[in-house]
Amino acid sequence: MELLTTLLWILVALFVAPTFYYGYVKMIAEPAKIRKFAAWGYSIKIMQVIGVVEIVGAVSILFPELRLFGIAIWTVVLTASVFSNMIHRESKKEILTSLTILLHLMLILALTIWLNNAIR
């Protein structure tokens, strides 16, 4: 059980660190992100709101009591990312990146559920 708990925390850390950063970059309106969102026809304000939502989701995943909430947030964000990338005909790499991150998130969800059920 300790091995699975350790694995879960490693997966959480590997998920939260980059996703928090990506949210922060959007929230502070980094010029490269502004250009990307502008090319898609999205406003800076929408980009910043998405950044805040990403940060809230990332931080929520750190706390076991809020983890499902954070996973729900990130599932919506990543699904929207996949569709947005498809609509705007971005490279397959962009789509696969979002899908890979979503798979990582689902692994965190599965381990969280498994450990919660094993404890009961």
Automatic annotation (TrEMBL):
The record's listing under Pfam families reads:
DoxX_2
Q: How does it sit in the membrane?
A: Multi-pass membrane protein
Q: What name is this protein filed under?
A: DoxX family protein
- Where found? Membrane
Looking at the UniProt entry, the stretches that span the membrane are 6-25, 37-63, 69-88, 95-115
Record the organism. Emticicia soli
Top-rank lineage group of the source organism: Bacteria
What is the first-listed, main subcellular location in coarse terms? Answer: membrane
The record's annotation in InterPro entries points to: DoxX
Q: Does the keyword Transmembrane apply?
A: yes
The protein's UniProt keywords, in alphabetical order, are: Membrane, Transmembrane, Transmembrane helix
